[in-house]
Amino acid sequence: TGSVGVVVTHADGTTTSVPRLFTYTPSISRMDPAHGPLGGGNAITITGSGFDRTTKVSFGDVTTASTFLDGHTLTVVVPSQVSPGAVDMPVRNADGTSATLGEAYQYDPL
Question: Looking at residue 7, what is its pLDDT?
Fold first, then answer.
């Protein structure tokens, strides 16, 4: 995750380097399950890319810590919400890179 340099090796063997040319950003491709109780407390698995040990996950406006399994997988315990419905799910790394999956998690009515 974060910014990395790129080195190009030319056919004649010379190289050109550009520091911090490419930045890895997190992305979310799926979560399982994608819904649960209004009271939260259930664990979900988030699959994507660009995750690191600092990745925080939000459910709407409520941010919670995640458990880093690898750069493609996080687990998180879902926080409670006050009303049912779908919420956006942003993820953010400590380096400031982030991604949001809109209306990604559905809180079920009681």
Answer: 87
